[in-house]
Amino acid sequence: MTHPVRQARTRVKICCISSAEEARLAIAAGADALGFVAGRPSGSGIVDDATIRAVADEAPPPVASFLLTPHLKGADIVEHLRLCGTNTVQIVDHVDPAEHAVIAGALPLVRRVQVIHVEGPRTLDLIPVYEPHIHAFLLDSGKPGGSMRELGGTGRTHDWKVSAEFVRRSRRPVFLAGGLNAGNVAAAIAAVRPFGLDLCSGVRTAGHLDPAKLDAFMQAVREAG
């Protein structure tokens, strides 16, 4: 079943969680989801599978736990999910939609989120490719097709006009990522109207989750509505 998602507030996923202490900080600030980076060709905040498992196991309901897996084959992703125990998988690169079916068949309760890197209007062509096979999209600012492949963690914004049109066309919830911080999040929400937000560097100082930046970001989200 797919139909437009309406919500009373904008959800927030704090990514690059590296420890139980960071998870506690994020949850206390009001985060709806935690993201764990298990390895990818670019970005920061990579954490080992054992730590992901330990922290995800302690996440209270209804806080979601996202595994950012580097794998592109369904069977490999399933094995990785079983090791890490998260309830959601975030696939950071393009995959054959058939791989989503493999994950669904093996782990039907795990939610599947497909990352789409906004590189121009042709991004919109990917909606019907993935929409029947996933639970949500996440729009980011990487360059998967470049000579230096980037699959997230860039700290850059992208063209929010394209993202806003993506949200209007998608029948799945859409998370917005890429260069978000307390100073620009209200404008991002107003321009794109995403279901949720995803960020890492915008709430960190020297690689560590910064309580002051985190609180400022969450306050800005609440004020934006």
| CATH topology name | TIM Barrel
Structural class: alpha/beta
Quote the average pLDDT. 91
Instruction: Provide the CATH top-level class.
Output: Alpha Beta
Portion in strands? 15-25%
Terminal residue distance: 27 Å
Which architecture would the CATH scheme give at its second level?
Answer: Alpha-Beta Barrel
Number of domain modules? 1
Number of helices: 8
Q: What series of H and E elements makes up the topology?
A: EHEHEHEHEHEHEHEEEH
Query: Which word captures the global form?
Result: globular
> Which consecutive residue ranges, at least 5 long each, have pLDDT under 50?
146-150
Biggest beta sheet summary: 8 strands, parallel, barrel
Fraction of residues in helix: 25-40%
Strand order of the largest sheet: 1-2-3-4-5-6-7-8
Write out the CATH superfamily name: Aldolase class I
Total number of beta strands: 10
Radius of gyration (Å): 16 Å
